[in-house]
Amino acid sequence: MANNITLPPNLQDKIHTDADAIKAASTDYGHIITQNPAAVLFPSSMEDLKTLIGFSFNSSVPYTVAAKGRAHSVHGEAMATNGVVVEMTSLSKNSSNMILIGGDKASGFYADVGGEQLWIDVLNATLQKGLTPVSWTDYLYLTVGGTLSNAGISGQTHLKGPQINNVYELDVVTGKGELVTCSKQANSELFYAVLGGLGQFGIITRARIVLEPAKTKVKWFRIIYSDFDTFSKDQEKLMAVKESGSGVIPNYLEGQLLMDPNSLDFYPPEDRPRIASLIKQYGILYVLETVSYYDDRTKHSVDKKLHQLFKSLSYLPNIYSKNVTYVEFLDRVHADELVLRKKGLWEVPHPWLNLFIPKSGIQAFNNGVFKNILLKQNFTTSIVLVYPMYRNKWDDNMSAVIPDEEIFYTAGFLFSSRFNNWKVFDNKNKEIMEFCDKAGIKVKKYLGYQNSKEEWINHFGSKWKTFQDRKTQFDPKMILSPGQKIFN
Ligand code: FAD
């Protein structure tokens, strides 16, 4: 018994109710919401998950259960008020939950990975065999189960689709406490439900991830624009370059706003005054960021082919580039994390807003949001990402929601509130949403919380009925991931 809920007696040793365990499970990367669970489970096998969820499902007073990966959500998505939080990373202490690599060249390589594993560990393990996952997030200290519950996007999405599109098979413990293996071929309804399913249908205990042969090195470029139209046209031009045997394609394509003359670390010191004066002149610069992977076999041809590619683009002089290893590139945000941690700026409120914007609205979005709401009101110091992707690289059967246009953009407002003034940023987020609403830009929130059930219904649009039916099928007692506040 913990806080008026009755828990399975055979999990006693693994269930913690002490203040430290409760505190650690009551907060997240957002540092905006605090919700105490009644108890925290430190599982050592998926049997423990089946027992925990099955006990709740068979009880006349079910308790809620939230899988917690790294709690890198920002609005309490991995919390369970007065329920049970499952510390998924505790599973990785069990040696049977290792990362196993299989398959072959003809049928494709894969890695069988525990849902609790961090992507950085998946990268390191697969590289030992010369292989790598194909689709990433910008930051790798996130769990496989956590990102697959959303979508998992980054600069590879335009080419490979989101992470949820690069999964062959899943093991899932459903809201009934049953362990089910699912794929496009077997138990497909559960497979599609869980991918992008915000933790609503089951806990992912294993994912079979698509792998490909890894390149070892990366050419990493940034080019600058003063005009959004030219910038986005060039992004789309690069996005349209087809994958070929040569290895020289934009393997990664993103973009960001440059409004702060104090954030020029990527650029050579001698060029920084010139870039700062361009910021002064234009207010916002748009930085196109792209990358080509290469190895010893392709190192001679890569420069020539890239030069050819850049010739067709209309950026301001110069091309800024770095040569780094594959791991250095993929793990780049961790370096920023270490710097921010040292300054005490990592564990601060993060009122983030991530949106998907249909291409038809992106010009109006630039004028109304980037130029008006951010620049004119002096919100110029945060990281703001903006880059395009294709709808046809996503699978509409999955739960993730995207705009209804062939090309759409993502914009990430990665606000960080050093002075605990997160409400100021949150109000900005509201202003952005209100602007889109008034301008008729049909944006979809990514990773986003909604304020009410009506907003969730609106978010899912034509997918709502399927989402709801799947909930009834796989988690009829509404036990799982209550922190998303969709059904609870
Ligand atoms: P948690 O926050 O612990 O959980 C998220 C949700 O998933 C919760 O509802 C939880 O109950 C559920 N869940 C967790 N594990 C499981 C499981 N095994 N099975 C089923 N449900 C589960 N996202 C991107 O797409 N692209 C990026 O580039 C990107 N960059 C980021 C950078 C930083 C610095 C941070 C903090 C976040 C970033 N994110 C990005 C967002 C990130 O992908 C999500 O917040 C993700 O959910 C975090 O993973 P987590 O393991 O911390 O999940």
TrEMBL record:
Tell me a Gene Ontology molecular-function term this record carries.
FAD binding
List, separated by semicolons, the cofactors it needs: FAD
Reactions the enzyme catalyzes: N(6)-dimethylallyladenine + A + H2O = 3-methyl-2-butenal + adenine + AH2
InterPro entries per the UniProt record, alphabetical: Cytok_DH_C_sf (IPR016170), Cytokinin_DH_FAD/cytokin-bd (IPR015345), FAD-bd_PCMH (IPR016166), FAD-bd_PCMH-like_sf (IPR036318), FAD-bd_PCMH_sub1 (IPR016167), FAD-bd_PCMH_sub2 (IPR016169), FAD-linked_Oxase-like_C (IPR016164), FAD-linked_Oxidoreductases_BP (IPR050432)
Domain spans labelled FAD-binding PCMH-type? 33-214
Q: What is its EC number?
A: 1.5.99.12
GO term, biological process aspect, one: cytokinin metabolic process
Which top class of enzyme applies to this chain? oxidoreductase
Q: Which UniProt keywords apply?
A: FAD, Flavoprotein, Oxidoreductase
The similarity comment for this entry is: Belongs to the oxygen-dependent FAD-linked oxidoreductase family.
Q: What is this protein called?
A: cytokinin dehydrogenase
**Species name:** Acer negundo
List the top taxonomic levels of the source: Eukaryota, Viridiplantae, Streptophyta, Embryophyta, Tracheophyta
